[in-house]
């Protein structure tokens, strides 16, 4: 197997993109809409406080979320946007101390999460072996995006987020194409024992264990309850793919592209599932 990622990249580059709930003000428990049918405690509108949010912004049932069937809560990940808004944008002032800024804070959080998600993809792209010119472009885009996250609240609300996303997606596609070329030989070898993937995006409940998935484009694919156990997903583009209840036990996702903690949290894995070093293995996975 050809090496796709840099062997010695520093995991610290992901540090600010990982959640730190103790430094947040429970934004995800208030700012977001969620429903009981999706594994949350209740049906609630955006801006309404979750029934389990304590006065100190901690969760009253945090230790029993999975036991209580609250898979939506354990799956959600803000890419560190919560603590960024709380500690940097608003300098440690919470929405209870400044109720007049409550709605603005929630709106800023929603924008910040999108920016941090883009930063996650850009940073992940940076860990793959690639041309020096592409790496320079990535670093410039990371710098530009970080600068946006450090703006004041009013300026953040004025960001043309879709315009910026187009620029980010353009360079992500470049990296994806480079990785696809690098895995071509491995893909051909793997094809001897596997069948080719049928084009499409709806693989709900499908059994893909005997399918060659190396270097495939599964961006935005519906992989809900899909059997991916023991598959090799090296160089596979998983950006935006829905992995809820997907079986990735024994699967190799170490070199999968653009996979996030939230996706991993929703899937069913085990101790044999290989993940990128930047991701954390959920405690509730099979041993």
Structural summary, described in words:
The protein folds into two domains: 11-32 and 76-181, no CATH class; 184-287, Pectate Lyase C-like (3 Solenoid), CATH 2.160.20. Helices cover 35% and strands 1% of the residues. It is built from nine helices and two strands; from the N terminus they run ααααααααββα. The chain has helices at 27-30, 71-75, 81-89, 102-126, 132-149, 153-157, 161-182, 184-190, 261-266, and strands spanning 195-196, 211-212. The chain has a two-stranded parallel sheet with strand order 1-2. Helix 3 (81-89) packs across helix 4 and helix 4 (102-126) packs parallel to helix 7 (161-182). The chain starts with 26 loop residues before the first helix and ends in a 21-residue tail after the last helix.
Proportion of strand residues: under 5%
Query: What's the total number of strands?
Result: 2
How many independent structural domains? 2
> What order do the SSEs take from the amino end to the carboxyl end, as H and E?
HHHHHHHHEEH
Tell me the major beta sheet.
2 strands, parallel
Distance between the termini: 26 Å
Helix content, binned percent? 25-40%
Query: Low-confidence parts lasting 5 or more residues at pLDDT below 50?
Result: none
Which structural class fits the helix and strand makeup? mainly alpha
Structure annotation, total helices: 9
Numbering strands along the chain, what is their spatial order in the largest sheet? 1-2
Pfam family, one: Pentapeptide
InterPro entries: 5peptide_repeat, Pentapeptide-BTB/POZ_domain
Protein name: Pentapeptide repeat-containing protein
């Amino acid at each position: 197997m050809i090496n796709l990622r840099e062997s010695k990249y520093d995991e610290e580059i992901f540090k600010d993109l990982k959640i730190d709930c103790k430094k947040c003000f429970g934004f995800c428990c208030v700012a977001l809409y969620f429903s009981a049918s999706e594994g949350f405690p209740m049906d609630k509108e955006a801006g309404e406080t979750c029934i389990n949010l304590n006065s100190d912004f901690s969760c009253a049932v945090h230790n029993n979320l999975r036991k209580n069937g609250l898979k939506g809560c354990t799956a959600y990940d803000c890419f560190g946007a919560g603590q960024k808004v709380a500690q940097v944008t608003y300098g440690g002032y919470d929405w209870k101390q400044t109720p007049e800024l409550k709605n603005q804070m929630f709106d800023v959080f929603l924008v910040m999460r999108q920016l941090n998600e883009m930063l996650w993809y850009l940073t992940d792209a940076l860990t793959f072996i690639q041309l020096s010119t592409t790496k320079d472009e990535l670093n410039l885009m990371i710098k530009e995006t970080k600068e946006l996250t450090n703006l004041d609240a009013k300026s953040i609300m004025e960001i043309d987020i879709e315009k910026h996303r187009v620029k980010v997606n353009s360079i992500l596609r470049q990296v994806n194409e480079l990785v696809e070329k690098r895995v071509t030989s491995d893909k051909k070898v793997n094809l001897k024992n596997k069948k080719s993937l049928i084009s499409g995006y709806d693989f709900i409940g499908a059994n893909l264990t005997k399918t060659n998935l190396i270097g495939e484009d599964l961006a935005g694919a519906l992989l809900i309850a899909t059997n991916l156990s023991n598959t090799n997903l090296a160089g596979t583009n998983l950006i935006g793919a829905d992995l809820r209840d997907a079986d990735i036990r024994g699967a190799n996702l170490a070199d999968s592209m653009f996979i996030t903690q939230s996706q991993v949290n929703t899937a069913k894995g085990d101790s044999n599932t290989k993940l990128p070093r930047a991701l954390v293995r959920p405690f509730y996975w099979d041993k």
